[in-house]
């Protein structure tokens, strides 16, 4: 079983949604703390509200880089069977578990194009710089920030459209492209035991041959899709008295990255020259099926309202309802396994899953509030011998900021798990500069955006209550487990319109 566990770890090395669901996609959205359902009007809207892409004036290309890092409170050492003798006691060295989940930097790429006056298409993608996709499970008994360990470490691809059905009212949709992983391995482990040739041989010398034959391994990544439906309403276009008011709403279906692992293990033991026993072969067959849902993305409803005053000042508010109560934790579960052998009476003996989890999650309401101020445009005066300065046209400077609250879905858990989480508070800001193309390559403006977001978990602690002294994953000193930490994102984005 240790061999099987190693194979599962190798191909299922924690989890929800993706990095752009945590920070937002694009310089404006990240500077708004991930909000702007009714305000984002470029190709970045394919992530926030696909229907809002209809508000694009011209085609847009977007390219940016975001540095995303996490840091959590230092954890105490915990009890674990570190000497692998099957017992947890004072002979075990305590295990140091520190949630260092590495950097999750990546590139943001977007391309949007209006077609005629009533239709628009867009595609946007976040490509991690270090690893395209990380699939992993976690041990629920060890202290784990289960909402963050793997959530930031995967690509995200969105393909969307927008269509204006009535004046000012657009509908849209998108699909997020995920992948389903199927892994299978078939192998045979052969061992041979022969009798001692003299009285001085050690017992270990009786095993004279040990080999492993891997017959085949298959890893398949099959695409799967998450549906998104959206609506956007420029109220002022329908009702001129409410000019500047915009509304938006989206629905995203629940999905995830299902991983199925199949291990077909056969062990053969050959015995010879042991007393009166002649050559004798004992075989054991142990097929093993494991399932888990990586990067679980629950069903989510969202709505937003925005108001803009004379193309100078805008403010927006967004609300999100997420069905975390339907979330599946990415813990590998044994779903189909038996052991068959001729030596002892274990024929078709089922193998049960040993992860004893009693975790209650709830659906949550979360919110974002943000705004932007655009300074009056400024036209630089060409300097001597610098005629190309006037090609910059009007320079427009915009500053933006946003705040948000993301409550934890973790309500309670049993004494056999040590899951860590707390309410998350979001603070963000950004700076944008747009100008004409000094080289005359594109007709529309060129825009630069700098953004930074800081998110922190509310501080607290987890009291395990009255648990056995040597319970796996419990602090060795008996103290509470501290909860807290922060996440930050910062980067630069460049886009142009043509």
Description:
By secondary structure, this protein is mainly beta. It has a single domain (2-497), classed as Outer membrane protein transport protein (OMPP1/FadL/TodX) (Porin, Beta Barrel), CATH 2.40.160.60. Helix content is 6%, strand content 50%. The protein contains five helices and 20 strands. It has helices at residues 2-11, 19-23, 27-31, 45-48, 235-238, and strands spanning 60-72, 106-115, 119-128, 156-166, 169-194, 207-234, 245-252, 255-272, 280-297, 300-309, 313-322, 333-341, 349-350, 359-361, 364-374, 396-406, 410-413, 424-435, 446-462, 481-497. A 14-stranded antiparallel barrel has the order 1-2-3-4-5-6-7-10-11-15-16-18-19-20. A two-stranded antiparallel ribbon has the order 14-17. A hairpin with a 7-residue loop joins β8 (255-272) and β9 (280-297). It is elongated.
Layout: helices, strands, pairs:
Blueprint: H1 2-11, H2 19-23, H3 27-31, H4 45-48, E1 60-72, E2 106-115, E3 119-128, E4 156-166, E5 169-194, E6 207-234, H5 235-238, E7 245-252, E8 255-272, E9 280-297, E10 300-309, E11 313-322, E12 333-341, E13 349-350, E14 359-361, E15 364-374, E16 396-406, E17 410-413, E18 424-435, E19 446-462, E20 481-497
Parallel strand pairs: 5-8
Antiparallel strand pairs: 1-2, 1-20, 2-3, 3-4, 4-5, 5-6, 6-7, 7-10, 8-9, 9-12, 10-11, 11-15, 12-13, 14-17, 15-16, 16-18, 18-19, 19-20
Number of domains: 1
CATH architecture identity: Beta Barrel
Order of helices and strands: HHHHEEEEEEHEEEEEEEEEEEEEE
CATH level-1 class: Mainly Beta
Class computed from helices, strands and strand pairing: mainly beta
Name of the CATH superfamily: Outer membrane protein transport protein (OMPP1/FadL/TodX)
Shape: elongated
What do the pLDDT scores average to?
82
């Amino acid at each position: 079983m240790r061999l099987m566990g190693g194979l599962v770890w190798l191909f299922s090395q924690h989890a929800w949604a993706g990095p752009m669901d945590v920070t937002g996609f694009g310089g404006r959205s990240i500077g708004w703390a991930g909000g702007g359902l009714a305000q984002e009007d470029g190709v970045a809207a394919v992530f926030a509200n696909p229907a809002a892409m209809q508000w694009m004036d011209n085609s847009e290309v977007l390219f940016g880089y975001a540095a995303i890092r996490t840091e959590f409170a230092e954890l105490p050492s915990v009890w674990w069977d570190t000497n692998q003798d099957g017992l947890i006691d004072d002979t075990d060295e305590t295990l140091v578990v520190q949630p260092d989940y590495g950097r999750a930097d990546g590139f943001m790429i977007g391309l949007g194009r209006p077609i005629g006056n009533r239709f628009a298409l867009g595609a946007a993608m976040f490509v991690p710089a270090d690893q395209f996709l990380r699939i992993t499970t976690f041990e629920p008994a060890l202290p784990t920030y289960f909402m963050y360990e793997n959530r930031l470490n995967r690509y995200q691809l969105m393909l969307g459209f927008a269509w204006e059905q009535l004046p000012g009212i657009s509908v849209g949709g998108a699909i997020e492209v995920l992948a389903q992983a199927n892994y299978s391995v078939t192998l045979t482990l052969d061992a041979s035991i022969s009798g001692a040739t003299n009285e001085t041989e050690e017992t270990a010398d009786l095993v004279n041959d040990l080999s492993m034959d891997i017959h085949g391994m298959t890893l398949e990544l099959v695409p799967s899709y998450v549906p998104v439906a959206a609506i956007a309403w420029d109220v002022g276009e329908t009702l001129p008295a409410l000019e500047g008011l915009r509304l938006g709403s989206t629905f995203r279906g629940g999905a995830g990255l299902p991983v199925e692992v199949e291990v077909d293990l056969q062990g053969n033991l050959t015995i010879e020259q042991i007393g009166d026993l002649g050559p004798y072969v004992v075989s054991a067959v142990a097929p093993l099926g494991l399932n888990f849902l990586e990067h679980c993305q629950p069903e989510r409803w969202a709505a937003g309202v925005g108001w803009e005053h004379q193309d100078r000042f805008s403010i927006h508010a967004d609300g999100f309802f997420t069905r975390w109560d339907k979330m599946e934790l990415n813990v590998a579960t044994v779903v189909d396994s038996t052991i068959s052998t001729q030596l002892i009476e274990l024929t078709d003996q089922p193998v049960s899953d040993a992860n004893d989890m009693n975790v209650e999650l709830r659906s949550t309401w979360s919110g974002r509030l943000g705004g932007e101020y655009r300074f009056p445009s400024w036209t630089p005066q060409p300097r001597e011998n610098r005629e190309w300065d006037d090609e910059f046209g009007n320079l427009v400077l915009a500053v933006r900021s946003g705040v948000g609250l993301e409550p934890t879905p973790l309500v309670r858990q049993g004494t056999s798990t040590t899951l860590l989480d707390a309410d998350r508070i979001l603070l963000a800001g950004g700076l944008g500069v747009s100008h004409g193309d000094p080289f005359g390559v594109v007709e529309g403006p060129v825009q630069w955006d700098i953004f930074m977001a800081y998110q922190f978990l509310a501080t607290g602690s987890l009291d395990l209550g009255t648990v056995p002294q040597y319970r796996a994953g419990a602090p060795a000193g008996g103290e509470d487990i501290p909860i807290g930490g922060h996440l930050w994102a910062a980067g630069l984005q460049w886009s142009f319109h043509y």
